[in-house]
Automatic annotation (TrEMBL):
GO terms for cellular component: cytosol; spliceosomal complex; U1 snRNP; U2 snRNP; U4 snRNP; U4/U6 x U5 tri-snRNP complex; U5 snRNP. This is Small nuclear ribonucleoprotein E. Plays a role in pre-mRNA splicing as a core component of the spliceosomal U1, U2, U4 and U5 small nuclear ribonucleoproteins (snRNPs), the building blocks of the spliceosome. It comes from Brassica carinata. Belongs to the snRNP Sm proteins family. Coiled coil: none annotated. GO terms for molecular function: RNA binding. Signal peptide: none annotated. Gene3D superfamilies: 2.30.30.100.
Length: 90
């Protein structure tokens, strides 16, 4: 039986973020310091520091099994995780 070798290609994180932006894919972000909380949304913008702007954002609580609508959210990338800013009047 002939074996086939699968070639794996490393993708830079910034390129992956750009691909998600182009495809308008809904993404889920796991927060570093809040293990039971996730943020979901579509990337509408980002910069070279991997700060993100998410549209249709939702805060997903794993413990409580709840979702909270956030609309537009800015996620600031930090060395120890991500800090979020809600741009709506909630």
């Amino acid at each position: 039986m002939a074996s086939t070798k699968v070639q794996r290609i490393m993708t830079q994180p910034i390129n992956l973020i750009f691909r998600f932006l182009q495809s308008k894919a809904r993404i889920q972000i796991w927060l570093f310091e809040q293990k039971d909380l996730r943020i979901e949304g579509r990337i509408t913008g980002f910069d070279e520091y991997m700060n993100l702007v998410l549209d249709e954002a939702e805060e997903v609580s794993i413990k409580k099994n709840t979702r909270k609508q956030l609309d537009i959210l800015i996620l600031k990338s930090l060395k120890r995780g991500i800090r979020g800013y809600n741009l709506t009047n909630n």
